[in-house]
Predict the structure of Small ribosomal subunit protein uS9m.
Amino acid sequence: MTTSNKPVTYSSSGGRKTSTARVHLKNTGQSKILINGFEPLKYLEQEILVQDMLLPLKVTNTLENFEINIKVEGGGRTGQAGAARLALSNVLVKVSEDYRVLLRQFGLLTRDARKKERKKYGLKAARKAPQFSKR
């Protein structure tokens, strides 16, 4: 009986602001990362966003081990990078439960609950009031 060395695929999702990300990770042993079919720097356009998104892989020293395909939608680039970071953290926990403690220490498993506050009637924005006149 032969055993196949077929790569195992893991998937997870994450969110930030109005963005959602779905990550599909294969343990092929080679490093390849695509976001919506583009290289991370080409898609996110800012090096700091790419570094922030790849933080879970750097913390767990798994940057070179996986083939990663990320689909993001909604929001802007910062929200999409944050959503991808949370999704990467969640999928790494699925790969190995040992990563959970390390990722938790860096705060990478917690969803950032901050969202845009809605505009209220009688105000110009969420909290900005019209100019006050004494007379």
Notes: The chain has one domain: 9-105.
